[in-house]
Fold this sequence. Notes:
Number of helices: 0
Number of strands: 8
Order of helices and strands: EEEEEEEE
Low-confidence stretches: none
Helix content: under 10%
Shape: globular
Largest sheet: 4 strands, antiparallel
Distance between the termini: 47 Å
Amino acid sequence: DNSFALVDISHINFVTGESFKFTGAAAASNGKVIFAPWDTIGVGVFDPSDDSFDFIDIRSKISTGWKFRGAAAASDGKVVLAPFNADGVGVFDASDNSFVLVDISGT
């Protein structure tokens, strides 16, 4: 099957002026695809089983621009977001849409 579908995410309330939303994605153990935020306020969560897209606001944990660049699935099912301008490693749990920022500013 060589079909292609574009899933509309225009309903998401992105902050005005964000031009580079995500950089990198990884599949979580539950089949959802987690998008690493670059210059946006949240993590993207795409469910290919029904083509739904959720946006999880993480401003309470990190507000800097150019946050992460890339994502990788960890053996515990969580997705690790590689820091670019962030002072921490992002850890996203797709089972409950929780986000933790592991401080690495002292390294």
